[in-house]
């Protein structure tokens, strides 16, 4: 164990082998912004270094997965380099962007809003206010192309997952499952609760950039009048981001 | 334009190449051919680079027709029969599918995934750098769909008149235990569980698909619970959920997931594992990194050496061939001896 500059205790990074062609640099085993910061900082360093044989890196909540060609990379020098980089990371807050993401809450856009409000003893408007007041951090993109796992959900809104997952939820669903929140990028099966929907396309095959969000970015939700939905959706389909990049 | 038209096929027939790498940080599964050895072999037989996109058949065969021109084709991977215009094609041998003719691919007699390659590959726009179809995200393939009867796959013109080739002395598939390296979360299991995993026989359950192989066998006990914070997943990871029954994650796996992984199949054995059919058994053997890397090198060299091992097909001397051959070239026109006489048209 080592003590970071901010004074909180963080575990030393360790290498977990994943077969012959990948490894995981693990910084911790919890969902924690400091741990995720270190993952993203190492990711940035490794991507810039172009180490021999390294093919791709995948940041997750708490670890960095490194894919490499075992016939090119030398495992010992690769792990040595990764560990020494991991020890010398400068503690920093994430360098990501902050996005304002429009959301139509409730009604046909958020079919679980009223149910969730009732479960938590809130009015639907009070729940929307709580959900839209937080600043969310994108810990990782995974599960589906562009699917953003968010941290920062107000604990008052934490809700166990549905016992019966739905076979399909719409693209853009703003969802809550346990203590986690997410933006579903494409239609997918899910057991999470749907509070609303955004016209923003996190993943749009024909758009440049194809992927809007990245791990380390932040999101604030902007409740919109459902009457604006059609216009925004058309704009998104025409290739506009619709989400607004705002200062931090 | 020359094209291959699907006349019939099973529901899980799709276009697959080496896979879609570089976008896992955005949640994109690589997908790609389940058995890269089979893909490389089929491609080599028609003169393609090993990772060129081909049609992947799962269990069931199908039938394809050449339209707009002739096509040079080859089949490899699972043990399936191949006929062209009703005539059998020898194993690991390329064949010429003439315009209008049909090639029939039989059901897999052994193995699961077969690859039909076409000389020059398919001229279909890749998505994020790959033709590989991924079911759950609707990426790649033909407009994000699996292949179905009536689909028309455009092919390279002018690549089709090369020599037909054969790869002699190549076994259909190797057997033996599937080699694994322990980890990344073997410390989440009891020592007994690790011993059980390495010493028992597991059978592949009917739920096996491109995403993962569910295995049935002795229960593996977790030492520290089975809830971990989601981390990265690679193909070959063997995760063990609460049921204690392992699941090997394959090409269509999600990019992150949340169960402890007891071991990881080495890259050289993934294709061999993919070919094991539901109901068949599998054993695992733990190896160290040096053995895994040697196997990866051997696989790379095997693929690189394929073109040099091919031999041209010696055509049988049939009446048809004799008639088609220009046996009297060199004859001259008696009225104009300076100009060689045009070839005699042989009519059948």
TrEMBL record, chain A:
<dbReference type="InterPro" id="IPR010016">
    <property type="entry name" value="PxpB"/>
</dbReference>
<keyword id="KW-0067">ATP-binding</keyword>
<keyword id="KW-0547">Nucleotide-binding</keyword>
<dbReference type="Pfam" id="PF02682">
    <property type="entry name" value="CT_C_D"/>
</dbReference>
<protein>
    <submittedName>
        <fullName>5-oxoprolinase subunit PxpB</fullName>
        <ecNumber>3.5.2.9</ecNumber>
    </submittedName>
</protein>
<feature type="domain" description="Carboxyltransferase">
    <location>
        <begin position="13"/>
        <end position="213"/>
    </location>
</feature>
<dbReference type="InterPro" id="IPR003833">
    <property type="entry name" value="CT_C_D"/>
</dbReference>
<dbReference type="InterPro" id="IPR029000">
    <property type="entry name" value="Cyclophilin-like_dom_sf"/>
</dbReference>
<keyword id="KW-0378">Hydrolase</keyword>
<dbReference type="GO" id="GO:0017168">
    <property type="term" value="F:5-oxoprolinase (ATP-hydrolyzing) activity"/>
</dbReference>
From TrEMBL, chain B:
<dbReference type="Pfam" id="PF02626">
    <property type="entry name" value="CT_A_B"/>
</dbReference>
<keyword id="KW-0067">ATP-binding</keyword>
<dbReference type="InterPro" id="IPR003778">
    <property type="entry name" value="CT_A_B"/>
</dbReference>
<protein>
    <submittedName>
        <fullName>Biotin-dependent carboxyltransferase family protein</fullName>
    </submittedName>
</protein>
<dbReference type="InterPro" id="IPR052708">
    <property type="entry name" value="PxpC"/>
</dbReference>
<keyword id="KW-0547">Nucleotide-binding</keyword>
<keyword id="KW-0378">Hydrolase</keyword>
<feature type="domain" description="Carboxyltransferase">
    <location>
        <begin position="25"/>
        <end position="302"/>
    </location>
</feature>
<dbReference type="InterPro" id="IPR029000">
    <property type="entry name" value="Cyclophilin-like_dom_sf"/>
</dbReference>
